[in-house]
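Collaboration report, partner site 2.

Our partner group contributed sequences for two proteins of shared interest, and the home lab folded both. The records are reproduced in the order in which they were received, starting with the first partner submission.
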Amino acid sequence: MALNNSYDARPVQQETAVGAGVQVLLLALMGTAIGMGPVGWLTGLAFAIATWAVLSRALHRSRPRSFGPANRVTLGRAVLVGGVTALVADSFQDSPPVSLFVGLTAVALILDGVDGKVARRTGTSTALGARFDMEVDAFLILVLSVYVSMTMGLWVLLIGGMRYVFVAAARVWPWLTAPLPPSTARKTVAALQGVLLLTAGAALLPHAVNVGVVVLALGLLVWSFGRDVLWLWRTSRVTTVPAAHEVRELVVG
């Protein structure tokens, strides 16, 4: 009897389409509530389309049997991040309501700790899910750093851009792509970035205090990335030096 190895991608792809639809609905509600301008609308729609396209392509490559509950949580966070992105883009023309900005961002940050727990409890942890979660986190930090930089200066963009600089550098130096050991400190620093940037972006504290909060976030991130890069460099030296000795011995022999 022949086994049926066919793969039906439609159920999984439908979930990404639902996510894009919910994103458009959120933008419509925001537009009605605050009168969002065309820049915010276009940016939000571009985010929805890009998320749908990239995620659909990744799902087509990995061919999962189901989307999974943890990915649904992450997709929900992505929708919220799309809303925050639209608000930040719109803020170049008009200041967004602080309560809406803080509310969407806070829920997105809280849910960051939910999808991982759901994946572990349901036994649905996947490399795609981890990457999806990471990209949503990184983009939210980038958007928040853009928002805060409008009042504090372009130096704040170092926070949001550091991860993308690291990825670009890995294309030049492949040893940066080696897997890192688990680190509670790394996870803590990453989680604090959103909280600290949101605190500064809410502008509820004196400006000098907010600047100190952002400086703290940047300092912690530089320390975390610096520690990981140093570990990766030392590890690459340990693995390449013996190989060089082996080649020399073969040539001499």
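Second partner submission, folded after the first:
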Amino acid sequence: MTEKKVMLTEDGYNKLVEKLDYLKSVRRIEVAERLKAAIALGDLSENSEYDDAKNEQAFLEGEIQELETKIRNSDIIKAGDGKSVTMGSRVKVKDLEFDEEETFLIVGSTEADPDEGKISNESPLGMALLGQKINRVIKVNAPAGIIQYKIIDIKK
């Protein structure tokens, strides 16, 4: 089975590596200490502290494994030349209905965070923006209806 490539910006890749390092070097030790303390309490059959610590350990190991897989299968995306929208582009658009400007960074789904202006290349807006040029008007089919945006600027 071939694992799916994970599209990441360089910053997103570095954040995943940093989180993995933290989980392995700090959280593993904390959970191991908690497990050791729970074992010291005695009878494991009725020890909820022990059960909680084991569950936390299993969750942590799953998270570590997931991060390692994402990192191993990552493709670092490089922004294009700024002439058209690509993964890694920072795009300034104008909502034509509300006359409001917004800026979005086009990223892979792993990094998407709309609150930070990072939208996935797989989202309706991300897909509509990809390949477009400055001054183009795009239509996005959103839950609220069709939204029209004009592309004002594209940066690497």
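Feedback sent to the partner group on the second submission included the following. Helices lie at 10-40, 48-72, 124-129. Strands lie at 6-8, 74-76, 90-95, 100-107, 118-120, 137-142, 145-155.
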